[in-house]
Amino acid sequence: MLKEIHAASPASGSVASAPRPVLRLEKLSKTFGGTRALRDVVLEIAPGEIHALVGQNGCGKSTLIKTLAGYHDADPGALAWLDGEPFDLSAVTDARHDRLRFVHQDLGLVTELSALDNLALSRGYARTRLGSINWSAQEKTARALIGRFGVDIDVHRPLMYATPVERTIVAIAAALEGWEGGRGVLVLDEPTAVLPHTEVDKLLEIVREVRRSGTSVLYVSHRMNEIFDLADRVTVLRGGRLIGTRDVADLTPQTLATMMVGEDVDISVRPEAANGARGAQLEVRDLRAGVLRGVSFELQEGEVLGIAGLPGSGRETLPYAIAGAWEGAVSGALRLPAQSDAWIDLGDDDAPRFPLVPANRTTEGVISAFSVKENLTLPLIGRLRGRAAISAGREAELVDSWIDRLGIRTAGFDAPITTLSGGNQQKVVMARCLALNSSVLALCEPTAGVDIGTRVQLYDLIAEQARAGLGVIVSSSDEGDLLGMCTRVLVLRRGVIATELTGDEITEPNLLHAMEGSD
Fold first, then answer.
1. For the chain, which terminus, N or C, has the lower number of CB atoms within 10 Å?
2. What is the pLDDT of residue 2?
């Protein structure tokens, strides 16, 4: 069994019986200005293993992957070997090595194009003798690349209509194009961040299939169950430093979380039951939007209400429709009993709009060209305006207070939002919504791509806001969010509420059975 690694180079006479690593990194450091993102990291991946890379947001995982991919240059002194042969980490380049392939979290696909076209973008189209595109050969190649994973995808259909797991499979197929297997490494960065459990299982089997072909996998994920289901070994980073590499079989979720955070953290967080009914905060009647077919429910004051369901059930639509952010037609009515007895048509332009933490923070939650401050205060400009312009002092005071309150790790409020880790970007989006002081907050996939420490912080934050009277709607494909935040869950199937679970009824088996409609 492979045990904890030590910093010995492949040529320095390590244990003779140990297989030669397919990838080894030594003394890997990376500095941005005055910030040391990585400090003398050692990473070793064995042939044919699935090796997990974990750590809190901002620990250096993304920097390591981007340096390995050629997006960043390493600090002087970094060493790297692939299958025993050295390669250079010191310069920015299109690709470090042909036997290093990457699937990044955003997948790098053009969703307006088909799977066939996306697969051809990196390696080029098949050509006839006259130089024109050989569409027949290209289709055959695309079907073969995707078919090796046991799935059937319409290769001519734009990927915007594909499921999330289908898009991920296309990205993996594109990364492995021209590579029939054998010694090398496929790097997967958060491939299941927003996948529901039914599609996660499919993707994990795809990863196992990659391993069966002889290829090693470096797998980045915040989901503990995936690490323990899939990985052989796990490397933990904290603060840019290597904490250790261990056999997964020698760990428990609790001990792994402690390695990541640096202190004991309760990963079995469960919300406290609400202290008695406080009255309805929000009432919704006959909501219709997208696949939703007449959904009615109440949200109590200070309640955290979960929305669960398989893809296409309406789970993804409901919070957007309630918040006034659904782009399609919406009908039905809502009432805010504390404010008025009147029912308001949800289709009216003057219907209430509630703050929404969207499902995809990259495309919907943050403006990449803006700073932390600008992203946080964008909807609050009216409140911060003085007689003629925005009050810089008032704005700085507001931003500083939320940075401190949510523990947002940033070089400063003028730092570009893109310099923050995913978890800290999520905190900025959360702070922006909470700063609006609404009575209702809608959350979609609130912990997607968020580490265990930040996850617990967000759970505690929402619980604190609920105790203060905020009504919260949580829609998530991650059962952990529903277990860790909600005291009541509505399970949707085919656009209607099929099941309601409360208190101790909210267990993972009950949620899965209710979503699937099984006993």
1. C
2. 36
